[in-house]
Write a structure and sequence with these properties.
The protein has about 80 residues and is an all-alpha fold. The protein has one domain. Helices cover about 35% and strands about 0% of the residues. It contains two helices and no strands. The longest helix has 15 residues. The N and C termini lie far apart (about 45 Å).
Length: about 80
Amino acid sequence: MIADMTGRLVSPITVGRRLELDATEHALDGAIAGAPVHLVIAGEAGVGKSRLVGELSRSAADRGMLVVRGACANLGEGGMPY
């Protein structure tokens, strides 16, 4: 029973991110039209960056775009320079 409750629960409704969602949709429109697009998603821990990227990825996939996702390697203490 506990194993059934260990999954991640995410609301299907995104709250308080209309400006950001509109900006990502605008970027997708540009990319579909052939314009080069680059987005930087930044913010403090816990503000919803992963959720925003998830919504962007879903929207891109729904529009028929190929979505490729990467992640940073956890190397312990300290960060790697870009």
